[in-house]
């Protein structure tokens, strides 16, 4: 009985987690309004074709830092607060602002900003959770905010206080929200289909009055005023530069609604087409709460896209599936579970636990790989294109190395490395995703799959392997210092692993760095320019080379190697994130303020562990045991 | 005995380790200092330097003494080469390591030679224009034109304040009153002239120039200005200002925009005053002088046919920069068109032409500017060394790694 249990527990655990993963794959069913079909509509945002679902999730992440909207955040989780999907929220922001503007969607953490805007404090009775506020609540004091914002915008971002950063961030969030409000109709229009019809009828007369007015002739003042009011409203919409929601028509590429409405009366302009009307129908139906009409207009809009935009529709559907799958989030959960099992296996030395962890790590790794490859196919790019994808890829590479180590050593160490780094990097990726679209288009200099596939991948593998060496070293110190589980054989095998991985890291970081120089030579005419990111990569190469030479020269032994490898973590984190915070050079992208705090914490923690590593052997739990 | 000691010192691993450690510290300090000193400042202070004295970190001056980039590079090179010669053995076990270290030698030698031999220049042109020369991005020259005869004096020769220079083709000598690496310029408004002008003649009567700190980022440039006195054997011709503010069309345009609030007519007048030619008359011959970026002539010409700048739909994110250029080479009879774009430079006649900056596309069209393109022009005889060095180190490390891996795997199999 026990034997069967030991044999079948690991695959059973994996099977349960796999079921959980597949269970999450299917989209929630639409009750009346077909919001999930709405989410599959392709539009153009950020310079690329995206489904509305991605626009909804990315916008909600930027504004609320979550992919869903809790409309009753003052309720505890067990009181069943109403949670709605991102697409439903987006549809209402775009087309039914009377409802959406009351939803508590803006997350505000800074207490000074809360008091500046006179926002209510946490009080469940008054439906306030002290963190999430609605557009209406914020715009009540928008004048005060604008005054502060004007002052803050003049300060360089590096010199802002936390409060000023909160102001700047809120400004970005409000702008994004205003763009979405003006993507389909002039914000807060009451009956958009009727208004649009009126405008369409008015165009010939309106144009005539404007021409007459310019020529100094007499004209119908009422028609002129109404027409000009429309034009001003549409101009306002266009100036906000919301996403391009209208598909190409004739000679026109993807267009903004505001631009299309302004284009219609112009000589040679494209008349208002069915896609404009369908959007208006959807808006009218959503406001009037008529699901059938909404779904019919949506169906018609989709049929407009066939066959010219069939490819865009297929791509959008694929991206929606990817959004729904959330492979990196799911992999992260499984990594934690596997990591815990592997750590426990060190203490009771249970082979069943270790084997369970192996099965789970494989599942997480497969899901991680699916996500990575799916992203590559969606983007048509090599794996690493920005900071976000570098985090995904470092986690993936480290996990692969961990699995390989485990295959050879079968002592749970590779598993802890795989799950530990996998988990940490996916958490980092999760936070980087808050910065906006993670599949943004590549700027002209970076638009080369060859160099992205060689230089960037090699450097990132270099990062991943240096982190693996560092993580192995952490295991050595933590197990050796705090527990009695680091026997001589384990210590020796850890040191061998670290040495091997450092060799591997040297190869990849060196080749990657030099390839980067060659790329620079190809695009800027200089091989090496001492740019901060280049220097960061160079320091990794030098540090790895230094470790190897110290080892070859016999200047360090097992513990010296371990301490040096931990410092490799610091060096790599500096190159990965630190140099971006200097705000100089050609590579200075993706600066995040919160990241700075975490980087400092990370560096301090590593230095503390190196400090422990330097303490005399008599204070180490494991060495005490060995001495006896 | 002594020789053995020296050999031991230069071939020792301890020296390697020390040099690597110093390199890490130097690169780290040199990176941090870029926030205070700028990229070029930090390059000159830390990397293109033998000994580094003092550093600027986080807005403070920090006293410290470090070996500079040149010193570390040369010592590493000596260390590597001597160890290579001394310990060389041709065995399978060592093959990878030897190859990798030889590759590092190639890289180091290549970088040192690039640093000394490479020249960086630029070529600016508007659509339809033809250029037979490139301009230096950092070096300037003074030119004197008399009846179409051009005399060029590198600005480097005019660096020493108080120094006097005599050129045979000019009937006067040049005394350097001051020569600033970077300068700012202001129009002397008639109503509010504060002090006396900095020179007695020419544009100095209408404009004030003053010395400012060097620029810190790569997208700005230093604008040199010199105050010079011209002297003939019979007496002084007075003091004059020569400045890149008058020579660079982009700067003149910036001045015009800067004074736009005084009205377009006034701004235009100020810009026109700035570029008024300054002329000396000696013995009935006139000499017009300007300061401009140093030029290198090519035995062929490039003509910009079309400059295209595309962005992703609905955004300002640049998608592509592209210059279509015609090469005319009278010596070889070549006349062909090529496209130069990001990541696709043109290598021709010992020079490499890279797409550098561009003012074209919608933004330029709306502002009514003709499309222009700036190519970065580099002459680097050592450009191949990184390719060779990288291949050698990569192959070397790979061989070594596979050798170890094979050993590791076979050892496990025998257990």
Tell me about this structure:
- The complex is a heterodimer of chains A (628) and B (415).
- Helices cover 68% and strands 3% of the residues of chain A.
- Chain A has 628 residues and is mostly helical.
- In chain A, helix 1 (2-23) packs parallel to helix 17 (351-379), helix 16 (327-348) packs antiparallel against helix 19 (413-432) and helix 22 runs antiparallel to helix 23 (558-576).
- Chain A has four domains: 1-24 and 326-441, no CATH class; 35-181, no CATH class; 192-311, no CATH class; 469-628, no CATH class.
- Chain B is of the alpha+beta class.
- Chain B folds into three domains: 2-117 and 397-414, no CATH class; 119-130 and 296-379, no CATH class; 172-282, no CATH class.
- In chain B, helix 2 (13-32) runs antiparallel to helix 4, helix 4 (69-87) packs antiparallel against helix 5 and helix 7 (249-258) runs antiparallel to helix 8.
- Chain B is globular.
- The model of chain B has no long low-confidence stretch (mean pLDDT 87).
- Classes of the chains: A mainly alpha (628), B alpha+beta (415).
- The interface between A and B is large, with 63 and 62 residues.
